[in-house]
Design brief:
Organism: Petrolisthes cinctipes (Flat porcelain crab)
Number of helices: 22
CATH architecture of the largest domain: Up-down Bundle
Keywords: Cell membrane, Membrane, Sugar transport, Transmembrane, Transmembrane helix, Transport
Number of domains: 2
Subcellular location: Cell membrane
Shape: globular
Family: Belongs to the major facilitator superfamily. Sugar transporter (TC 2.A.1.1) family. Trehalose transporter subfamily.
CATH superfamily of the largest domain: MFS general substrate transporter like domains
GO cellular component, one term: plasma membrane
CATH class of the largest domain: Mainly Alpha
Helix content: over 70%
Order of helices and strands: HHHHHHHHHHHHHHHHHHHHHH
Number of strands: 0
Distance between the termini: 47 Å
Length: 493
């Protein structure tokens, strides 16, 4: 409750004595609780996304041992890869949906398709139905993820984001861990039915939440926007000031771009090209670390066998990965609060590159055919597991957070909905390509070459992006808007 304590100091009893002071503090608590409900809804969406991501690893192991279900290695790769492909389609649809229906209604209309997707997976008699369910689930994840980012950025004020956003970040990794752990006791069908249960709490939450002030203003409902701001801001003056900023942002975004909803070319406008370009680069760099393939196929990389011992080891590896993910999240929350974004990316890149080089060296020794190197790798069989866990830890401390954080902190408000749709689509499109081609790369080029290539690409991306990325640490959306407008004005001089 640091927020309430801070306001007690800044609005002491001399300014708000007696009953007025009490009413003022009660309003602060009410605001905190209302924004808390927004955060809970965001947590459910984040949980759904990570549960869908975490489903593959334990489910594939269960499918292999299911006597009433047949699946090949090639089909396994599709079960894992089609979810990001569906999310790609959903992300592209998210921008127009958000602009047409609003942030809240778009999320509300996803509840039924989400339930249907998990039900298809749970009741599928063959791989085709399971794949269809995964595609639909991915599409819902793609839309909901884009909407959640925009909704949170537009309704929670800057000074409270560091209180609420970390909660969502933790829940994101918790969802994957819950899927990994539940997969040790539930079959792949039971795990899918559990996905249905995950969706249900979203419905009552979305029914009571408001639309964002920015969308209300952009669609000509300024009075309602101000009414919403008055409910979720500390004072009337603060609500009116933010409404004025929203008016200016809407005017700046629409000036000369009356058809921006119908044309993606708006993202290439002078005031938008810089942030959109950085956002796209961050998404590309994030996925070319190979993280999605590692999440989906880490157990296969470390234990390629199909026997019961291999499946048991697969389960243990998945659970440990979930725990390390959660640990990395807590460390990243500390870093995001106190360190600049460029510094976090640099530290994350160093850990990722070091881990990938260790993996490349280990598998090079294993694949060399030399007896003494083979004996050494057998004695040090724990090395790739430790390197992989270090890789996941390093990823979560920087590259796992900053690309999405940049959308919230660094994207101009007048294109945030459309840009978020494109950036998240890029994220999922690359996730599909990486996850679908990773096993082929291992079989064609070998593990050592594959991991070495990821290390080199990560190092190059880190060097290039840090030179172009604007620092967003402790800057409000209005301040970042002005940064881009000033850059255009300076260029035009």
């Amino acid at each position: 409750m640091d927020y309430i304590e801070a306001n007690t100091k800044s609005h002491g009893s001399k300014e708000s004595p007696g009953a007025n002071y009490f009413i003022y503090q009660v309003k602060n608590v009410n605001i905190f609780l209302k924004l808390g409900l927004v955060t809970v809804a965001g947590c459910v969406v984040a949980f759904l996304k990570s549960a869908a991501m975490g489903y593959t690893s334990p489910a594939l192991s269960s499918m292999r041992s299911d006597p009433h279900f047949s699946i090949t290695r090639e089909q396994e790769s599709w079960v894992g890869a089609v979810m990001p492909a569906g999310a790609l389609v959903g992300s592209l649809a998210a921008g127009p949906l958000m602009n047409q229906l609003g942030r809240r209604l778009t999320q509300l209309y996803l509840v039924c398709p989400f339930i249907l997707a998990w039900a298809l997976i749970a009741t599928g008699k063959g791989v085709g139905v399971v794949v269809a369910g995964r595609v639909l689930c991915g599409a819902c994840v793609g839309v909901s993820m884009s909407v959640r980012i925009v909704y949170m950025a537009e309704i929670i004020q800057f000074d409270l984001r560091r209180t609420f956003n970390p909660i969502i970040t933790c829940v994101t990794q918790l969802g994957m861990l819950v899927s990994f752990v539940a997969g040790q006791w539930l079959s792949w069908r039971g795990l899918a039915w559990l996905g249905v249960v995950y969706v249900i709490p979203l419905l009552p939450l979305l029914l009571i939440l408001p639309e964002t002030p920015y969308h209300l203003t952009r669609t000509g409902r300024r009075d309602k926007s101000l009414a919403v701001l008055s409910m979720i801001r500390r004072t009337t003056e603060e609500a009116e000031l933010e409404q004025e900023q929203i008016d200016k942002s809407c005017h700046a975004g629409n000036e000369g771009n009356n058809t921006w909803q119908n044309s993606i070319g708006t993202l290439a406008a002078p005031s938008n090209l810089w942030p959109v370009g950085v956002g796209l680069s961050l998404m590309v760099a994030q996925q070319t670390t190979g993280i999605t393939a590692v999440y989906f196929f880490a157990s296969t990389i470390l234990s390629p066998g199909n026997d019961s011992d291999g499946n048991q080891k697969t389960g243990y590896i998945s659970v440990v990965m979930g725990v390390v993910n959660l640990l990395g999240t807590f460390l990243s929350l500390y870093g995001i609060r106190y360190y600049r974004r460029r510094s976090l990316l640099q530290m994350s890149s160093r850990m990722i590159v070091a881990s990938l080089l260790v993996l490349a060296l280990f598998f090079w020794a294993q694949e060399s055919g030399e007896i003494y190197l083979s004996d050494m790798t057998n004695s040090w069989s724990y090395v790739p597991t430790i390197a992989l866990l270090t890789y996941i830890l390093g990823f979560n401390m920087g590259w796992g957070r900053i690309p999405f954080l940049f959308i919230i902190e660094g994207m101009p408000s007048w294109i945030r909905g459309q840009a978020t749709s494109v950036l998240i689509a890029t994220h999922w499109g690359l996730a599909f390509l990486v996850s679908k081609t990773f096993m082929w790369s291992l079989a064609t080029f070998g593990s050592s070459t594959t991991f070495l290539a990821c290390a080199i690409v990560t190092a190059i991306n880190n060097h290039l992006i840090l030179r172009a990325m604007p620092e967003t640490f402790r800057k409000t959306t209005a301040q970042m808007n002005q940064v881009y407008l000033d850059a255009v004005a300076k260029k035009d001089q």
